[in-house]
Amino acid sequence: MSKTRIVHYINQFYAGIGGEDKADVPPEKRDGIVGPGMALSKALEDVAEIVGTVICGDSYFSENEESASKVILDMIKSYDPELVVVGPAFNAGRYGVAAGGVAKLVTENLELPVVGGMYIENPGLEMYKKYGYFVETGNSAATMKKAIPDMVAVIKQVIAGEEVTGYVPKGIRVNFFAEERGSKRAVDMLLKKIKGEEFQTEYPMPVFDRVDPQPAIKDMKKAKIALVSSGGPVPKGNPDHIESSSASKFGKYSLKDIDNFDSSNGETAHGGYDPVYANEDLDRVLPVDVIKEMLKAGEIGSLHDYWYATVGNGTSVANAKKFGKAIAEELKADGVDGVILTST
Amino acid sequence: MCTVVPISLTVGANRIVPTVAIPYPLGNPALDPADEKELRRKLVEKALKALQTEVTEQTVFKDE
After folding, report:
1. Interface predicted TM-score (ipTM)
2. CB–CB of B27 and A217 under 8 A?
3. Contact A289 B29 (CB under 8 A)
4. Model-level pTM greater than 0.80?
5. Domain locations in chain A?
6. How far apart (Å, rounded) are the C-alpha atoms in residues A115 and A167?
């Protein structure tokens, strides 16, 4: 069997050209192995050969993505490879984004498999993970010794046409037929869990952030309070057309003219619960009547002029995080001291 | 303020006030309007109290 032809993409640093001061070097190609390609090539010597290495400065790539992509693609193509390896980029942000960009380029234009390596928090991984088999690495080049064998294992699986394991999920569903039906598998899992045995979930939970609790409000009579909700409370007619599930946006609505909700001025956009009660009286989801009374009575110092609403029904964690960040930034800028978040 | 407290715990909320039911967390259509509003007021008061309470970890503010 002939050896699989591999092209390796690395940045200026790993090519030995230089660090930040050389990050603006344009793409170049060199026959054979360069830098970390040495260790890869040795571990792969039975099955593959690194026929060429393409190098580009990280800044050059990000500042000239379109033109650099074209040149890099041609350079890769010139070696007629069967597989492309990028990185490992560890936690180097621009290198990760460039390596991911090359993975996308290769996937879309050459339809070749791509194997890479990055630290789990490298922004390039989140952006481009669907374009390659990216192995999770440590956060610095000090973990090269671990990264190389992990990447080699994946490369060998890809070459052998085996099921590929040990990479960061691309977020792409693969259909397969299970031997047992779902209910049986679920009960088996539950029994294992009860017995304290190991089991493998079929639906891993997303990883949620933890935030340090903020200090308590010292004097509520001077505090500015805001209302935010994922229960879909919107003005009657849902003016922003917030989706009833998998929301792609949040809305911001004035509280100035509303002292009390009824069926004429509010409704819920949420499609994941019976909307009858919220549509009758939206105070049941967003307590505007009570908070306005508290404001008049001086129980709170002031009330933020707007409420924010989205629908937390099947909404992706990534979107929810984005909404949360945007809303929090506005609230902070407006001097809000405390927020009441309601959810359904 | 939420009805399904385990979800709030999972997503990392630090001050959690349990509420009435999923479709009406801050109300109860079975009550007459005055009682329903009183219920809502008590829950919001509890949320304001939670905001005035120092916490060092995720805390569920249950009925006293």
Report:
1. 0.97
2. no
3. no
4. no
5. 4-160, 220-342
6. 9
* Residues A43-61 pLDDT 10s: 999 999 999 999 999 999 9
pLDDT, tens digit, for every residue of A186-217? Answer: 999 999 999 999 998 888 777 777 889 999 99
Residue A121: its pLDDT value, please? 86
> Could you say which of A210, A225, A284 has the minimum Cβ distance to residue B27?
A284
Task: Kindly report the three-state secondary structure assignment for every residue of A285-312.
Answer: CCCHHHHHHHHHCCCCCEEEEEEEECEC
Minimal C-alpha gap between B54 and chain A (Å): 5
Give yes or no for residue A152 having a pLDDT over 90: yes
Q: Do B41 and A277 touch (CB under 8 A)?
A: no
Residue A106 C-beta-side C-alpha neighbours within 13 Å: 34
Please give the Cα distance from A331 to A325 (Å, whole number). 10
- Burial pattern A7-42, b for ≥16 Cβ within 10 A else e, equals bbbbbbbbbebeeeebbebebbbeeebbbbbebbbe
- Asked if B55 and A216 come within 8 Å (Cβ–Cβ), the reply is yes
Superfamily name and number for A4-160: Cobalamin-binding domain (3.40.50.280)
The contact set of A with B (CB < 8 A) is: 205, 208-211, 213-218, 220, 223, 225, 231, 273-278, 280-281, 283-287, 289-291, 293-294, 299-300, 338, 340-344
Mean pLDDT along residues B31-41: 97
Q: How far is A293 from chain B (nearest CA, A)?
A: 9
How would you label B5-17 residue by residue, b for 16+ Cβ within 10 Å and e otherwise? eeebeebebbbbb
> Which of B59, B52, B56 lies closest to B17 in space, CA to CA?
B59
Q: Which amino acid, residue A311?
A: V
- Give the alpha-carbon dihedral of A134, A140, A141, A147, to 10 degrees: -30
